[in-house]
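Postdoc handover notes: sequence design on the structure in folder B. Input tokens:
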């Protein structure tokens, strides 16, 4: 885990799960991290600072006014941490973090530090599902915060549902993984993601069920691992973290043009669900029922974005690593293997799709197919699959000499 112990600032907020932060502190310390605790006022209603002080051997930051008194430099502290982890993160502290407030040590440090940030939500199901919380969580994630959990199970109210803080051991593992290698530093990674829209007329189009969530997860992970990430993104309401450069497109032809304009590419990951065809002669005005030929849809073939870019870039970038996706309903490995050569890929990630699988829904199961073998992964979250895909990219890159 590097030459020195990672320094984690563990922010504890007011939730019944605050007592579990004691276990989390133990797990992080045991794994070799140096942990400084900061508490909100709400947290102190649940657990005494002394409990944390006894285990961490450090005094707890719990008084934001100490900054004014010059006793504790929260802003200085902010520069000393490698990771800010807020666990448990109550609905209230998530709201205050999302709005940039700084009225306690946890939010004050969050506002001043440039270190990576993670949070483990803990609250009642109703609070978790409330659109206000959904929006606040989305705001933090869009700013690059890593969310850990929540899970489902028994809640403090006695009811059961989603909102339960993730297990301390899991939080510790995920938090420590954020110190993972920046093994894509200095690499430019182009990722295509999302569906395409192929217009028939000004209001109608051909498209598919893709949400772009897999490609966005890969983009976020690649940025965390130090890459310069250029995401060529079809129409979707999802957005990557602020560290990713987005090129928004609608059609397959626009996707190819936008990607073609990017220079010095080291890795191409084509996760977009590109429409293979587009309606011939998209109309300038809305088609009316009963017009001549209304029952016939004439199509032209779209360019293959992946195959085109791979062929073009390989000519000038000997170390280029190209990853394609094969969304299949059957014969996954055979179909994925066929795409390796056909589309000029070093690696094809195959996943099974159907109306209820693959497109934006739940856990994903994939198989990475290379010329010399294959490796299955999952079922796992899209974030975990993203890390797996990038591990494979790094591995292929190590075997390919760079020009
Ligand atoms: N792809 C692309 N441009 C296209 C079609 C596909 O870049 N016009 C890319 C996808 O992003 C994905 C891979 O090619 O990485 C496989 O897509 P898929 O639609 O499964 O491939 P097809 O060539 O359509 O194969 P099949 O018809 O056998 O499904």
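Designed sequence:
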């Amino acid at each position: 885990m590097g030459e020195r112990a990672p320094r984690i600032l563990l922010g504890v907020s007011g939730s019944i799960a605050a007592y579990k932060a004691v276990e989390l502190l133990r797990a992080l310390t045991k794994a070799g991290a140096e942990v400084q605790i900061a508490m909100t006022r709400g947290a102190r209603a649940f657990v005494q600072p002394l409990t944390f002080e006894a285990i961490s051997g450090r005094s707890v930051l719990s008084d934001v006014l100490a900054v004014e008194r010059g006793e504790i430099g929260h802003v200085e502290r902010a520069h000393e941490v490698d990771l800010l982890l807020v666990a448990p993160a109550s609905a209230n502290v998530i709201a205050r973090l999302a709005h940039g407030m700084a009225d306690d040590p946890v939010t004050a440090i969050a506002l001043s530090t440039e270190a990576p940030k993670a949070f483990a939500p803990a609250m009642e199901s109703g609070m978790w599902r409330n659109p206000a919380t959904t929006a606040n969580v989305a705001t933090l994630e869009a700013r690059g915060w890593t969310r850990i959990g929540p899970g489902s199970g028994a809640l403090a109210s006695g009811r059961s549902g989603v909102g339960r803080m993730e297990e301390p051991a899991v939080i510790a593992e995920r938090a420590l993984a954020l110190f993972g290698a920046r093994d894509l530093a200095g690499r430019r990674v182009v990722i295509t993601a999302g569906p395409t829209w192929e217009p028939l007329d000004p209001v109608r189009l051909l498209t598919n069920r893709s949400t772009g969530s897999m490609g966005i997860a890969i983009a976020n992970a690649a940025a965390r691992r130090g890459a310069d990430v250029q995401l060529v993104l079809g129409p979707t309401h999802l957005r990557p973290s602020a560290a990713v450069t987005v090129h928004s497109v609608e059609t397959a032809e626009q996707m190819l043009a936008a990607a073609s304009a990017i220079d010095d590419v080291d890795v191409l990951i084509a996760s977009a669900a590109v429409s293979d065809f587009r309606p011939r002669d998209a109309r300038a005005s809305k088609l009316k029922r009963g017009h001549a030929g209304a029952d016939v849809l004439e199509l032209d073939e779209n360019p293959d974005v992946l195959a085109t870019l791979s062929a073009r870039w390989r000519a000038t970038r000997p170390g280029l690593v190209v990853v394609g996706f094969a969304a299949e309903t059957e014969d996954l490995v055979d179909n994925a293997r066929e795409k390796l050569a056909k589309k000029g890929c070093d690696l094809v990630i195959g996943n099974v799709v159907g109306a209820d699988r693959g497109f934006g829904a739940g856990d994903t199961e994939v198989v990475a197919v290379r010329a010399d073998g294959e490796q299955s992964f999952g079922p796992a979250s899209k974030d975990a699959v993203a890390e797996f895909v990038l591990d494979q990219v790094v591995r292929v890159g190590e075997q390919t000499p760079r020009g």
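Context for whoever picks this up: Residues 98 and 138 are 9 Å apart (CA to CA). Don't rerun without checking with the PI first.
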